[in-house]
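Lecture 7 notes: from sequence to structure.
We start with the chain below.
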Amino acid sequence: MTYQLDLLIPTARFVFSVEGDTVDVRPEHRSPQAFVEYRALRERRAVVGMTTFPNTVLLRGPRTILVDPGLPLQNDPVLRALEARGLTATDVDLVVLTHAHLDHAGGCASVLAPVAVHELETTSPHWPLVGGVLDRLSLRRLSGERGELAPGLEWALTPGHCDGHISLCCETQLGRTVLCGDTIGPGRDDFDAMSPAGVDAETVLESWKRLRAWAPDLIVAGHLPPFAP
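Predicted structure tokens for the same chain:
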């Protein structure tokens, strides 16, 4: 069973800063260069921040599946990207969240399809940030450590970034593909000036072993360009 993988909206980061009376928003980055600029601004003692958008993925096969629709302000971009492919919101059969952080789950209202999320996320401290929207949608609460979301689309619990984080695996036109959300992210050096939210390093390492067991040809992480392992 093969799915057509489509990077509907690629990941991007925006660095912004305030120095004296000057407000600066840097051009979007689709690479770790954003962290280089972030650290440089911190060293200059600027007030600095970063907004990050995840990879939003469309899988088309036995079912049409949208993975991680992003922030609330991405509703319109998601709909426009679907329209550019001859699709509407009603053509999406299922939305899958790797986890329920706002930058991945806030855009679920862009389509009215059922939303699959691990039940551990619905009792997490960050759920109230997105639950107001998600609780009004049809939730498919996943339980346990692994299962099948649709024909040929597997999921596995990959905690560490947060307790209810899941990753997906399926065959695509690019080979065996793993969508791992924030199980893989920027390196430790990138976070010298930024504290990653709730990351448990030992648990992440165990989750990496689960990803490796799938023997992927391609990995699509939440905030990195797709890469071959």
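Points to note: The chain has a mean pLDDT of 90. Residues 2-12+54-221 form a domain with the Metallo-beta-lactamase; Chain A fold (CATH 3.60.15.10).
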